Amino acid sequence: MNIPRARKDALAIFQAGVKAVDPVHAIKKHLRLKGNRLVAGEKDYDLAGYDKISVIGAGKASASMARGVEETLGEKVISGFVITKYDHALSLDKVQVIEAGHPVPDEAGFQGARKIVRFLEQVEKKDLVFFLISGGGSALLPYPVEGLTLEDKQNVTKVLLEVGANIHEINTLRKHLSQVKGGRLAKIAHPATLISLVLSDVIGDDLDSIASGPTVPDHTTFADCLHILDKYQITGRLPALVVDIFNKGSRGEIEDTPKAGDPAFERTQNLIIGSSTLAVKAAAKNARELGFNTLILSTFIEGETRDVAKVHAAIAKEILSSGNPIKRPACVISGGETTVTIHGKGKGGRNQEFSLAAAMDIHGLGNVVVLSAGTDGTDGPTDAAGAIADGTTVSRARKLGLNPDHYLRENDSYHFFEALNDLIITGPTYTNVMDLRIVLVI
Description:
6-stranded mixed sheet, 2 domains, alpha/beta, 39% helix
């Protein structure tokens, strides 16, 4: 096997992982209809007992998830609307698709969220509502607490991204600045029956972190928000009203998000239909079929992307040196979501930066290929899902006059890999279960 073949195999392994978490297929796997009897996971529903069945939702995969519900329930769905990222819309029969901003919320998302709230305020006990949640749902469902502007929330999100806060920390603050997140949407929908179908994009499939948990009890508090501000020393960078809300909440002057045991959750079912684990397992299966000795490293990978890249490169070197933890031809796969602390003014994303950092660590190794890409087809504010690198990447770049250290220092991995024609551009995949990283040692 040579490097060109290995690069082709790495792309195929990634694509197999993405295909395994196709939302339409996942919906049909978890929702089964027989006459008026609906089985959702392990729960049964007699649809004859409901006056109306509607669909709402938010996330990068919400349009394709809505298509899965429409194809499963057919004419039983009366109406609905979902919010998804720009350029991620699909043509549906009953469900309207609203496009909005991600990762920074915008006015279109705010208007869509307000529409969802107004709709839920009108539902009654004999209504059945499907709420479709997927990655990006938190940014796509912006409905700030009273007195807070959308611009305030945008500023909070920007600051958190810049300092490298992880998704759990970002969502903790979002939940306490929102009228719908952190279980508050379920409270608005009560007493209707709510079935939340969830495509997980967070490590460990923590339901109260996925899209900031709009339909599940929230275990975080206002005190946690203050701790995050202190951890990253960002109090002075946030709007004064935001800090004031956290302080008042920590003193009990503002009601916290609903917790376990709240009546709002009595008629709510939360069902995970897809996750990073499913994608990683499918990728591993494909790798074995291609002839690789395959190891799933972890689906819980997080941390600074450059540090994570060093670890993956070190594993590749160990395989070459000792045959541990697996022998060649080897494939090591990991899932999860890393973070980038921005120091430069370049363009890129965590997957492209991972591949650049890894390329520098495997420089000169003629039998190693590294791929990192987002399953949603988007990496940071770019049109690339990620990038692919091998032991020749750095030398090829230098021949073009590119200094890898400079591009890494400036967080400019996009332009680095663009010059090498090594960006992975898939377009929208209409799914989202975090990232896949693939290391091949041949």
